[in-house]
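Sharing a chain and its predicted structure for anyone who wants a worked example. Both blocks are below, sequence first, tokens second.
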Amino acid sequence: MVKRGRRYRASVELVEPDREYEPREAVVLAKQTATASFDETVELHLRTGANPQHSDQMVRGVSVLPHGLGKEPRVLVFTQGEGIAAAEAAGADFVGGDDLIARIQGGWIDFDISMATPDMMSRVGRLGPILGRRGLMPNPRAGTVVRQQDLARSIDEAKKGRVEFRIDRTSLIHAPIGKASFDDESLVENLTTLVDNIVRSKPSGVKGEFIRSAYLTTTMGPSIPMSVASTVDLRLE
């Protein structure tokens, strides 16, 4: 049995047993449970009714959070020719082709998001075993395989707070919504944006209830159950 520290036990006592919180209440409570010495990330965890073993039930998409994630991600772009200048001008942190591929094959993965122009994918594909399991592989469905003319917009979105969400093999979706230092309204708006995008991405193959449970938590804090009905009702105006 895992032995929890005093700080964690004190945070758990703030969460009422057998209660499902309204989303805004959960945000406020999550901030209260974030008592670590660093600025903890607030995370959304959803259990879905989708079966990832069926191709028509895969859930995957992106969401641009209006208030970002609290830190600017390091963006890598695989491209060549005119794409190099376009990516550098847009603020990408690492830009290149075969040189970056070789560097990653050598064990370097010091970046948070990778993108690629279509003409690079035949070469980037060899990085699948390295980047795929880390969720860093460029993918058209995630919007990270980008035409040269769209690089500026995509890099700008990534820098502002672009979050990729996807179902894992246990039918769960995990995604950050910001930092505990954010004000309540910013976290609520980020949560609303993310939930709205996830609900809209419900695959046609999923029958019945799509979202079956919803929780907020912080990096070092306890899980806070949310009302599923209230959570799925979060909508962008």
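Comments welcome. The chain has a mean pLDDT of 92.
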